[in-house]
Amino acid sequence: MGCHTLFPIYVENRPLTKPYVNYALIAINVFVFFYLFFQGRIAFRMWISRLGVTPILILEGKNLWTLLTSMFMHADIMHLLGNMIYLWVFGDNVEDTLGHLKYLLFYLFGGFVASFTHIASVIVTLPTVGRVGLMIPSVGASGAISAVLGAYMLLYPRARIRTVVIYYFIQIISVPAYYYLGFWFLYQLLMGMISLTGLYSGVAFWAHIGGFAAGYLTIGASGIRAKPKKPTPRMVKPIRPIIVSPYVKTPLVDVILEGDRIRILAELPGVSLEDIRIAVTSWDVTISAERGDIRFYRHIILPAPAVPQIEDLTYHNGVLSFTLRRLYAF
C-alpha cells in the first residue's frame, strides 16, 4: 500500500509588505524549541510540563500564563517543522491584510481560543476517559496557526497553494486554498469527533478546530477584506533588432507586462496596417510585414501565457501597438 502525504510549500499570491511579525513568530518558536531541547531529554520533558497548558490547573485558575507560553513550545522536531511550514506558507498574506500589530493580537487570540476549546473537549470526555486527560499538558503553536488558516480561507479562497504530494511518487501540484484548507478542516473535525469517544491520539484536534473557527469567524465578523494584489508593471528588456538578411529586418520590439495584460510595441516604419500580419498563440507572437522592398519579421516568446486574441490594435507613426490578456488557470 502506498503512503499518501501532502503538505504546502508556498502560495502563489505574494504579500505586498514584509511579514516581520510572522518571521519573528517563527524565529521565537525555533529558538525556544532548540534552547530547551539541548538541555537534555529529562529537562525538556520538565519544561513541557511546566510551560504547557494543563487543563486541571487552568480550571483551578492556576498557571494561566501557560496559555501564552504553550504557544511557543513543541513536543519534538517534526511537531515544530510541521507547524512552522504552515505558518511560513499562510501567515504572510494574513499579516499583510491585518497589519503587523493586529496580526500579532489575532494570532495570540486564536491561540487562547484554541486552548480553551481543547480544555472543553477534555471535559466532554471525562465520562469515558476519566480525569487523566485533565493532567496531560498540551503544547504547540498549531491552535494559533489554525486561526491563521481560518482567516486565510476566508480572505484568499481562490489563492493557489503549491503542494507536494507523495503517493508512490513525488509530485508538485497547485491547489485552490478553499479546497486544501477545506479538506484540512474536515479532517480535523472528523478526528475531533472520534477523539470525543475517548480514543486518545496525542493530537489536540479540538484546539485546531477551535483556532480555525475563531480565525474564520473573527475575520468574517470584522468585515476585513483581502488587499487586492496589483502587481507593479514590469518592463521586459527590449528585444534588440538583428539583421537576418539584407532584405529582411528584425524590428525593435518592447514587451510590457502590466497586471493582467501584456502590451507589445513594434517599430515597423515604411509600411501600413494592411501590410502587417500578426500570429498569436498562448506562448508566442509572430509579427511580419512586407511592402515593396521593405520586409520585417520577428518571433517573440511571451513572458507569461496569454489569451490568443488581439486587443487595442493601433498603428501610428510607424509603431504597431496591441495588447493580450494574460491567461490564468483557476
Gyration radius, rounded: 28 Å
What is the H/E string?
EHHHHHHHHEEHHEEEEEEEE
| Average residue-wise pLDDT | 87
Can you tell me the CATH superfamily of the largest domain?
Rhomboid-like
Proportion of residues in β-strands: 15-25%
| pLDDT < 50 runs, ≥5 residues | 241-246
Main structural class: alpha+beta
Q: Report strand order across the widest sheet.
A: 4-5-6-11-10
Summarize it:
The chain is built from ten helices and eleven strands.
Q: How would you sum up this structure, described in words?
A:
- The protein has 330 residues and is of the alpha+beta class.
- The chain has two domains: 5-222, Rhomboid-like fold, CATH 1.20.1540.10; 234-325, Immunoglobulin-like (Sandwich).
- It contains ten helices and eleven strands.
- The chain has helices at 20-37, 41-51, 55-59, 66-69, 77-98, 100-124, 126-129, 142-155, 177-195, 205-222, and strands at 5-11, 160-167, 169-176, 234-235, 253-258, 261-267, 276-280, 284-291, 294-301, 311-316, 319-325.
- A five-stranded antiparallel sheet has the order 4-5-6-11-10, with no helix packed on it. Strands 1-2-3 form a three-stranded antiparallel sheet.
- The protein is elongated and about 95 Å long.
- The relative contact order is 0.11.
